[in-house]
Amino acid sequence: MSGFDPQRYEEAKAIYAGADCLIDQDQINAAYDRIAAAVTADMADLDPIVICVMLGGLQATAELGKRLTFPFELDYLHATRYRGETSGGELVWKVSPGLRLADRHVLIVDDIIDEGHTLAAIIAAIEGQGVASVRTAMLLRKDHDRRAPGVQADYVGCEVADRYVFGAGMDYKGYFRQLPGVWAIGRDQESA
Q1: How many CB atoms are closer than 10 A to CB 90?
Q2: What is the model's pTM?
Q3: Domains in the chain: how many in total?
Q4: Which listed residue, 17, 24, 27, 156, has the most CB atoms within 10 A of its CB?
């Protein structure tokens, strides 16, 4: 997307003004603390590669990384189904990891596990490079039964209601990833 779209910008402002805060900043920080403790217990001696899933995983990777006190290498990938929209389509690979992953232990970090189709494709691609192991850390897991069969996260910070959420790395049409908590589109705005 390029260029300023005043209508989209005003829509985003209106959505935020009517949004419901589901998880506040203190709860988010506590979730990162829990994830970091579990990852440390499992991976501190494995010389892991932490892979950030862009763009949503940027904030989660930064927050989690600040809490990991053992050595790890950092890389990223960019695969998306949303491209600035509120519902997913075909998976598009924009950037693959740059580090050699064969025989390495990998931790994939992202913002949320929803239906899991993107995560399943990412895991398959990473496993296809001959890694020693793959684990996944997600700030949020959406509470529903539509998840792709067999797809789960190894480390999850919080459960979140089955609503369209943004903040803490997740966006509303490209906006509000920077918010310190998690908001949901207001009930009166969901059908709009």
Answers
A1: 8
A2: 0.91
A3: 1
A4: 156
